[in-house]
Amino acid sequence: MAANMEEAKAHLKEHGWVKLPSVLTKDDAAHALDRLWKAKKTSEANGEATFQPILDPDPSNVRVFYLPELDPLFRSMLTHPTGLELTKSVLGERFLVSNFSANIARPGSQSMALHSDQSIVLPEPWLNIWAVNVMWCLTRMAKENGATLYIPGSNKWTCWADVPANAPDLLVPFEAEASDIVVLDGRLWHTSGSNITKDDDRAILFAYYSAPYMRQLVNWTAKLPKELQETLGPELKELFGSSHIGYVVYGDLRYMADKYPQRPPYQQPYNGPTGMEAAKQVLGNMACAPTVAALLNEAPTAGVVEFEFVREIFVKVPAANKDYKMLKAMLSMKMQETWMRMECLQKSNGESAGAA
What we know:
Blueprint: H1 5-15, E1 17-20, H2 26-45, E2 61-64, H3 67-70, H4 72-78, H5 81-91, E3 96-105, E4 131-137, E5 149-150, E6 172-173, E7 181-185, E8 190-191, E9 202-210, H6 220-223, H7 226-229, H8 234-240, H9 256-259, H10 275-283, H11 289-297, H12 308-316, H13 324-330, H14 335-355
Antiparallel strand pairs: 1-7, 2-3, 3-9, 4-7, 4-9, 5-6, 5-8
């Protein structure tokens, strides 16, 4: 289907599905099929029914649920790089394993309901892709042996009203070989086909991934035995949603001090005058600047009070500036005392200027 991974991603986003050939070897597919039949027996021995009337009209459709519990091979398939890369291309970096099950369509099996994976778990409208199904073909998949049928373009439908009355006439089969995968986005409408052959099983594994803010179909924390969960690596723990805190999907969890650093004003970057030059620049707005500068230089340092007109100086003087301590000492006087002295000086200078 797709010549390379980038083409596959683009096809999946546009059409809602893509097929990749030979992701497994033929031997690997045959081995997985053998393990699946053994998993079926184990599942039944555990009391799990492999016929689900809510899904299928007859027992010729064999369903095997909870595959990760039954065999380590299936757990490893959940982290196969190809399946994960395609899933990430539409769901983003973070998602969960909602379900991992198998459907073996044996001769005589009939179609299940027409649906999209999102339509049966989420209310309309379906405006985005919130689920991905990676179908692992363990046998040949063709129309006559019950291939999955889909409606081209249905990944654009956003509500039940979009499903036309002639939907069955629009269905076409996915055809694939053992070892191929077919990836569907959660909006694509599909159903299982009817197996009209005499002796040709169609076996598929469905690795169903979902956005991490969706409830998983399987509560893996409750389903998987504790001793099995303890053996899982970090990747599978996160995929099953059994990690300590779980995923944070959107937002920024940086600590307040990191996101909103509150540096003192005198630590703010500044490329202008510093030290005494900065003081002179601010004081230069006053006629008595030289006299005030001299007065401040001699002021007592007890009771540090910053008054508004010199506060700008603190912004302009980096802590590392060699003149900072001297400047701070200059400005460390009580506000009332400072303003009284400045008012006297201003009056004195004004009178001098008038006399001149």
